[in-house]
Amino acid sequence: MKHSSTPQTRRGRGPAHRIGRSLALVLPVVMVLSGTLAVTRVNWTGNPSSDSVLTAADVSTEHRTSHGAAQAPQDVLRDQLLTELQEKDPGAALTHLQAAVNGKPSLAKHCASIARALGRAAVRMYGPSRAQSYARPVCDTSFASGVLTARG
Question: What pTM, to 2 d.p., does this model score?
Answer without folding.
Answer: 0.54
